[in-house]
Amino acid sequence: MLGAESSGGGAGAAIAIIFYVAFIVLAIAGMWTTFTKAGQKGWTSIIPILNTLVMLKIVKRPLWWIILMLIPCVGIVVWIIVANEMSKAYGHGVGFTIGLILLWPIFFLILGFGSSQYQLEKDPLF
Q1: In angstroms, rounded to a whole number, what is the distance separating the alpha carbons of residues 104 and 124?
Q2: How far apart are the C-alpha atoms of 70 and 68, rounded to whole Å?
Q3: How far apart are CA 123 and CA 8, in angstroms?
Q4: pTM
């Protein structure tokens, strides 16, 4: 009886892992295509600190802002500003900014695969 109970938990864990991996792949795909639309290299979206630097470049903010993102509470405010600027860069408003803040993987998918177009001057440095 003990063996029958433990086998059910393994299947649930496997399904959870599959959903987690699928979620991560979709989040990466959304960021990759969003970066590409902005004239940046898509692969930079998968490298943790570099993706933040590229995002700052996309929204035309100074790269030293990454230091501000490391400060508790200040980092949250900076992320809200960056999300708002990202939303504006693709022609969206405050509602989209709220989506980027709360559900960023889904809204990066919308930016990347939707009809949104990057509206700022493209910067080829990265």
Answers
A1: 25
A2: 5
A3: 52
A4: 0.81
Helix (H) or strand (E) holding 87: helix 74-89
Cβ atoms 69, 79 nearer than 8 A: yes
Quote the tokens at residue 73: 């509470």
Hey, what amino acid is at 54?
V
User: Which two tokens mark 12?
Assistant: 């649930």
pLDDT surpasses 90 at 124: no
In the chain the first and final C-alpha atoms are separated, in Å, by: 59
pLDDT digits (tens, 9 = 90+) for 3-39: 555 555 688 889 999 999 999 999 999 999 999 999 9
pLDDT for 89: 94
What is the residue whose two structure tokens read 């930016």? 111
CB of 42 closer than 8 Å to CB of 126: no
pLDDT at residue 102 is higher than 60: yes
